[in-house]
Amino acid sequence: MSEELAGGCSEDQGPAPTVRVAVVGAGPSGIYCAQLLVERAAGPIEVDVFDRLPAPFGLVRYGVAPDHPRIASIGDSLGEAFENSAVRFLGNIEIGRDLTVEELRASYDAVVLATGAPNDRRLGIPGEDLVGAHPVGEFVSWYQGHPDAAVNDFGLESARRAVIIGMGNVALDAARMLLLPPEFLSTTNVPDRVLDGFQAGDVREVTIVGRRGPAHAKFTNKELLQLFESETWDLLIDPAELVLSEEEQVFVDTTPTAARLMKTFEKIAERGALGRPKSIRFLFRCTPKEMIGNGRVEAVVFETAGPQVERPALAADLVLSSVGFRGEPLDGVPFDHAAGTIPSVDSRVNGMGRVYVTGWIKRGPSGVVGSNRVCAMETAASVLSDREMMGDRATESPRADRRAEIDALLMSRGVRTVEWMEWQAIDRVERLAGTARGSVRVKMQERGAMLAAADRGGDGSGAEKVASE
Ligand code: NAP
Q: What residue owns the CA closest to ligand 1's atom 13?
């Protein structure tokens, strides 16, 4: 450990005061940061991890696709952070509503913002608000059982053809979810209501459209291979789409990830249609210009740049734009509206002492879950290397008093905090429901139901009670 990270006080300065850190956001980036702070701090430290939801794990719970249970199980190892009594989970608290960032700054020595990128980027084209056209985040929030999902009906029962705009991993997640058989989905963690929605649906064709060529698709080869290996759908690419410009060829020759993708695209084009009743098709070099329809979306109009035939419009009953995400501004904290992130240098928020960022709110929505650990290392290092400055502020009052301060403020505002043990009660109820359906868990979607499970099971005894009601 470096001298800087070691921090601490010399013997004649007495014992080091406890450093208190608030982490806002219990997704992977926030939890990794909390873990690293506790692991690497030289002196005593307490970390309170806040989340606006009654459940922890952020994108691991509400972003990882239900058919990727191995990635979702990262939640189990993230949860180990809260087994350390120095780390508390404070769920169901929204910073900006229940507490302000300024109040956190007053009660904690450092505040780490790990609020992710919850908002969809919009295309900004005419017709984007037609019925049946949605930013993909709305669809993801629905099938993930997010308590704040804004839309619960995607008209799946009357949609045959879906168009997904964007060539990232989220687009592939959405395509699979639209076409996976409901009998398979019932073995995943999707809420019962979502399962009913998919059961009623009959989507047959999904077209995934990219504005650039195949060399610049953003999804990972692993995810593309998963589509290729599935027997549920035909995977289609017109071989003419794979003819590269000189510039694209140079990119492929110098970029191993693009070269791997191109190889898989070639295998897909070569295999062609196998006569399966469902299909996923890729179209490249099509920039969306407009969505048209009479109240409800009927087609997407594109401008094409490729050597292919004209594609004036692509008929669609459902359109999902999957073109990335943005962070949410927080009162009193600077925000880069173009990037959708909080501006920072070495994870220190510009112009705000003792406030830091980590994860997607710092660097934008990129990378896989593990990338957030690397990101959190930089953040934790900055927090800990600023420790000497924080030491002046840290008091030596007993730990209970310092924690009681923020608890009293929350209680005075009537905020119902969900602590770790209460989350574990929610978790038990979900796992029990999963046993009944043949899956690991069935997610609860309603905040009220989650809080009821927390109420009854917070003493560790109520899961069976709730499940039997
Ligand atoms: P992404 O990878 O950034 O992809 C966004 C796509 O939208 C790109 O193809 C982009 O094209 C396109 N796009 C952006 N603006 C557009 C516009 N105005 N018109 C047309 N197309 C536009 O974003 P994402 O899919 O939301 O994924 C976010 C992150 O989560 C990524 O790091 C992803 O790998 C990760 N993730 C990982 C997994 C997994 O590991 N299984 C699953 C889900 C998500 P351009 O390239 O031309 O800009």
A: 323
Sole residue written with tokens 């873990």: 35
- From the CA atom positions of the chain, what is the Rg in Å? 24
List the strands of the sheet with 344-345, edge to edge: 87-90, 45-50, 19-24, 110-113, 355-357, 348-349, 344-345
117: CA distance to ligand 1 center in Å?
13
Q: How far away, in angstroms, is 441 Cα from ligand 1 center?
A: 28
pLDDT confidence bin for 459, thresholds 50/70/90: low
341 backbone φψ class: left, alpha, beta (φ>0; ψ -120 to 50): beta
Minimal-distance CA residue to ligand 1 atom 1: 168
Cα 118 from Cα 326, distance rounded (Å): 6
Task: List the one residue out of 114, 105, 107 whose CA is nearest residue 49.
Answer: 114
Phi, psi of 438 (to 5 degrees): 80, 30
The answer on pLDDT for 385 being more than 90 is: yes
User: If pLDDT is split at 50, 70 and 90, which confidence band does 456 have?
Assistant: confident
Q: What does the DSSP assignment read for 156-216?
A: GGG--EEEEE--SHHHHHHHHHHHS-HHHHTTSS--HHHHHHHHH----EEEEE-SS-GGG
Q: What angle do CA 81, 86, 88 make, to 5 degrees?
A: 65
In the block, tokens 């005894």 appear at 461
- Which residues is 27 bridged to in the sheet? none
Measured CA to CA, the distance from residue 279 to residue 293 in angstroms comes to 24
Confidence label for 117 from pLDDT (cuts 50, 70 and 90):
very high
Residue among 386, 302, 360, 406 at smallest CA distance from 90: 406
Burial of 43 (0-12, 13-18, 19+ CB in 10 A): middle
Pocket of ligand 1 (CB under 6 A): 123, 165-171, 173, 210-212, 216, 218, 223, 288, 322-325, 365-368
- Asked if 239 and 315 count as a contact pair (C-beta separation under 8 A), the reply is no
Please tell me the pTM assigned to this model: 0.92
Phi-psi region of 332 (alpha: psi -120 to 50; beta: other; left: phi over 0): left
Distance 288 CA to ligand 1 centre (A): 15
Please state the rounded mean pLDDT for residues 320-340: 97
Residue 340 CA to ligand 1 centre (angstroms): 15
Strand duo 299-304 + 313-315: pairing: antiparallel
Ligand 1 atom closest to Cα of residue 123: 18
Confidence of residue 373 (pLDDT cuts 50, 70, 90): very high
DSSP letters, 14-60, are -SPPPEEEEEE--SHHHHHHHHHHHHH-SS-EEEEEE-SSSS--HHH
DSSP string, 242-279: GPPPHHHHHHHHH-HHHHHHHHHHHHHHHH-----S-E
